[in-house]
Write a structure and sequence with these properties.
The complex is a heterodimer of chains A (98) and B (371). Chain A has 98 residues and is α+β, with helices and mostly antiparallel strands. Chain A has one domain: Beta-grasp domain (Ubiquitin-like (UB roll), Roll), CATH 3.10.20.30. Helices cover 22% and strands 19% of the residues of chain A. Chain A has a five-stranded mixed sheet, with helices on one face. Chain B has one domain: 7 Propeller (Methylamine Dehydrogenase, Chain H). Helices cover 1% and strands 39% of the residues of chain B. Chain B is built from one helix and 30 strands. In chain B, β18 and β19 form a beta hairpin. The longest helix of chain B is centred in the middle third of the chain and has 4 residues. Classes of the chains: A alpha+beta (98), B mainly beta (371). Chains A and B meet through α1 of A and β6 of B.
């Protein structure tokens, strides 16, 4: 089980409060996590990564374990603490956005 | 008794303003989608309770929202706008080639007959259509494939397709305008397009009378006379009596012919409205006076409408999508400002009052007249 923290606008869009908990199939990567997130909440498609290029939107950042994972490969393994649910994966709107 | 519903898009959410036919007391509902930029909200003529909204943000991109109950509740629908075929390049601000990149939806134009069919004008400029109520969107590739795309360039707001006019008498005919590419018409339902810019003159172009590159800000039409078009260009107010085949200037005695919004009276096809703005570098009214100008002669001769509008120290802008009329008798005229006011006139512009004064900057205003 992976814990995901969405920014406020996306929590409202997905109609959730607090953390989202996801079961991710196979190895836990940014790609498999976002695939699972968008499968559960289809209204989030296109808001975190471009639907055509699958690139992370420029004003969205990925943080976990006090590290910035935004520029990691989408297929890099997530930290063990995220993969086992000890730490959340944070989706954050860049301070320059909005 | 008739009702009026005013759909307002702002930089930080959408608002729905409603009144009875007297248009004296207004209920303000919203914000919907608080914190998001709402470039446009528009209802279907075939089903007035079916509304579509363009919702976007710098963080999270583009969403399309749909309401089936007149704006009380909303749900997101499809938001995948994928250019088809070869992406190609347009001109960047400095004239160098730049690939098309989708940024946002500027305008949603529901079909006149089918609530599930909607056209979307997007930035970078292209035209999309849904026929399943917004679930999926397909590009009408004939426009971007017209062959002139490499000469299109962004205006200050971006390279946006902002105006879509459907001809009520001919389902195959449609007009679009792009800043800064110009205006185009299709006579075959969007398969092929041709520029309709003869008579336009733009001094910022190397060839001021070029076919492509004019910064058209808005085109308006009266549904009873779809061959007569009125245009607010970057500079110049223009008129065509032959469906855009040729244009002539009708700026006449306006204090400045720069501006964004233009619209036509609901019952008098020769009565038109503009809001003159001082210049392209000073996006506010001349002399700090917010004045709507009305021509009852289809242009050229204009009168200032000031009663109820601020006549000193007013430095707001009125954007291209931010003026609309209702269908009541007498015709109501509405516009929103970047200062957050929505002004309404229930007597065709003779007198004005603010419905609401302190919204976020208003981007778009549409009006529905309900039975």
């Amino acid at each position: 089980m992976i814990r995901v923290v969405l920014p406020a606008h996306l929590r409202m869009l997905a109609q959730v409060s607090g953390e989202v908990q996801l079961e991710v199939e196979g190895v836990a990567t940014q790609r498999s996590l976002l695939d699972a997130l968008e499968a559960r909440y289809p209204m989030l498609r296109g808001t975190i990564r471009d639907q055509v290029t699958q690139q992370r939107r420029p004003f969205v950042r990925f943080f976990a374990c006090e590290e910035d994972l935004s520029h990691e490969s989408p297929d890099a393994l997530l930290p063990d603490a995220v993969a086992n649910g000890a730490e959340p994966f944070l989706l954050v709107g860049a301070i320059a956005g909005g | 008794m008739s009702q009026v519903r005013v759909l307002v898009g702002t930089r930080k959410g959408a608002f729905v303003l409603t009144s009875d036919g007297k248009r004296e007391r207004w209920d303000v509902a919203g914000p919907h989608f608080g914190g998001w930029e709402i470039y446009h909200v528009k209802g279907s003529a075939a089903d007035p309770n079916r509304l579509y909204a363009s919702q976007s943000s710098g963080w999270f991109g583009q969403l399309i929202e749909r309401s089936n109950d007149g704006g009380k509740t909303w749900a997101p629908v499809g938001n995948k706008f994928a250019y088809e075929g070869e992406i190609g390049t347009h001109q960047w601000y400095d004239g160098t080639p730049h690939p098309w990149e989708f940024k946002r939806v500027w305008h949603l134009e529901p079909s006149l007959t089918d609530p599930d069919t909607v056209y979307a004008g997007v930035e970078d400029a292209a035209l999309f259509r849904t026929s399943d109520g917004g679930q999926t969107w397909q590009e009408l590739t004939g426009l971007r494939g017209h062959g002139s795309g490499s000469r299109w360039q962004p205006g200050a707001g971006g390279m946006c397709l902002h105006t879509i006019l459907l001809d009520p008498s001919d389902p195959a005919r449609m007009f679009v305008a792009i800043s800064a590419a110009g205006a185009f018409r299709t006579d075959d339902g969007g398969q092929t397009w041709r520029p309709i810019t003869r008579g336009l003159r733009s001094e910022f172009l190397p060839d001021p009378t070029a076919e492509i590159g004019h910064c058209v800000h808005r085109i308006a039409m009266h549904r009873s006379r779809p061959n007569v078009l009125f245009m607010q260009k970057h500079w110049d107010v223009m008129r065509s009596d032959d469906a855009g085949d040729s244009w002539r200037e009708v700026s006449g005695n306006l204090p400045t012919d720069f501006g964004f919004a233009i619209d036509v009276h609901a019952h008098e096809p020769e009565t038109i409205y503009v809001v003159p703005i001082k210049s392209d570098s000073e996006h506010y009214p001349p002399e700090g006076k917010l004045r709507v100008y009305r021509s009852r002669a289809g242009g050229q001769e204009w009168e200032a409408l000031t009663k109820g509008l601020p006549q000193s120290d007013c430095y707001v802008n009125v954007l291209r999508e931010a003026m609309a009329v209702d269908g009541l008798d007498s015709c109501g005229v509405y516009f929103g400002t970047t200062g957050g006011q929505v002004y309404a006139s229930a007597d065709a512009g003779d007198t004005w009052a603010a419905i609401v004064r302190d919204l976020p900057a208003v981007v778009s205003v549409e009006v529905q007249t309900l039975p």
